[in-house]
Specification:
The chain is mostly beta strands. Helices cover about 15% and strands about 35% of the residues. The chain has a domain of about 110 residues: Sandwich (Tick-borne Encephalitis virus Glycoprotein, domain 1).
Length: about 160
Amino acid sequence: MINRVPARFRPALVRSVMPGVIMAFMVLIAACSFNDSDAAPTVTPVPRAASVASLDEVVSLAPGEAVEITDEGVAFAFHRVAEESRCPAGAECVTAGTAIVVMSLIQATGEANQLEFILSPGGDGIVVAGPYTVTLKSLEPDPPPKGGVDDDEYRITFTVSRQ
C-alpha cells in the first residue's frame, strides 16, 4: 500500500520544506567553495647539519637544527614552536599559558615521527618515542618577552634516554 500526501497538502508541504532544502544546498556549495588563501602555510624547516650527542647527554637546539644520537642510528630535530601562549615577562595573566614544541625522531631509513610537547612556563615535558624517552627540560626564552619571540630566537634543551 502506498501512502500519498493528499493533493490539498502538497503546496503547503512544498512551501514549508523547500526553503530548508535550498538553504542546505547553499551551505553545501559555500562550504565546498571556501578558499582560505589569506592563511599562511605552516612551514617545517628541514634540519640543518646534525650535531652528535650520546644518550642521556643534555642537548640544546635552535629551530631547524638536529642532533644525531651516537650508536643509535636516529636523530632528533627541533622544527618549531607551533603555539606560544605563555604569559610574557612582566605581564599579569589570568592563566600561565602553554607552548607547543614540535620535534621529530628521524630513523636511519629516513622515516620521521613527529613529537609534540605541551609546556607550561618553567615546565618540562616527556614524550616516549619508540624505545626512546625524550625529556624536554626547557624552552627559552622563558618567560617570553612582551613583544613576542622571533622563531629563530627559540632554544630547547633536552635529553634522550633508552627505555
